[in-house]
Amino acid sequence: MDFGKFLMCKHCGFISDGPADGKCHKCHFCGYPLEECETQYTQEEWINMEFDERSRVKESIAENVIKNAPEFSEDAMLHRQIQSEKEMAEFIDQAVNRIKNAQPNQVKCPYCGSGSVQKISLVKRVLWSGIFGIASPTIGKEWHCNQCNSDF
Ligand SMILES: [Zn+2]
Ligand SMILES: [Zn+2]
Fold first, then answer.
1. Which domain of life is it from (predicted)?
2. Containing H/E element for 42?
3. pTM value surpassing 0.85
4. Which residues sit opposite 117 in a β-bridge?
5. Are 150 and 111 spatial neighbours (Cβ–Cβ below 8 Å)?
6. What's the 49 CA to ligand 1 centre distance in angstroms?
């Protein structure tokens, strides 16, 4: 039977769910070589495990194994925590920027030139055909002008 595997850094306490592909890995945070370990779960259980439960398992590995290892360094762990928080914040920033840039609100009404336009929602179209039993006249049109009430 195949057991779920993970990689751990005994120096800073980093644990990855990651697949152990047999290559030599170095810790992303401190450069220490990662060690491959087996969980007591089968590979399938480990992969499908809820995030919370997996975090608990990792925590207990950190408490019972890593913190007792002679390689373990409290400083390296602190450094890793600061670093990973910074990376998480950057990741969120980038995601927010991507969303912002994906919807530039520069669409203008071709009839009156107003910038006060809104996207016609799919819900509205479906509702229309549900109530009137006919296809919405806005089909094929994406935007509605709040100024002159035209769709385009
Ligand atoms: Zn490390
Ligand atoms: Zn208009």
1. Bacteria
2. strand 35-42
3. no
4. 145
5. yes
6. 24
